[in-house]
Amino acid sequence: MNAHAARFMSRPDITYVPFREDPQLRWGLVWRTEAEDARIRTLAQVGRELGTVTL
Question: Could you give the 3-state DSSP secondary structure of residue 6?
Fold first, then answer.
């Protein structure tokens, strides 16, 4: 896990160990198909238009 994940998904019963090589991780949007609506499709379209970003 990277520092971003450790910060925002922390749990008291889990210890995150940082990677020393600092690999680039890829994240993406996911959702249940039964929850898809116009708002989800719009958010996904905005993400496609903005493209990738390196954190």
Answer: helix
Separation in Å, CA 26 to CA 4, 12, 36, 39: 12, 25, 22, 23
Tokens of 42: 């719009």
Average pLDDT, the chain: 82
The two structure tokens encoding residue 3? 């520092």
More confident residue, 1 or 46: 46
What is the C-alpha separation between 29 and 17, in angstroms, rounded? Answer: 25
Question: In angstroms, how far is CA 53 from the centroid of its own chain?
Answer: 11
Instruction: Please check whether residue 18 is in contact with residue 3, taking contact to mean a CB–CB distance below 8 angstroms.
Output: yes
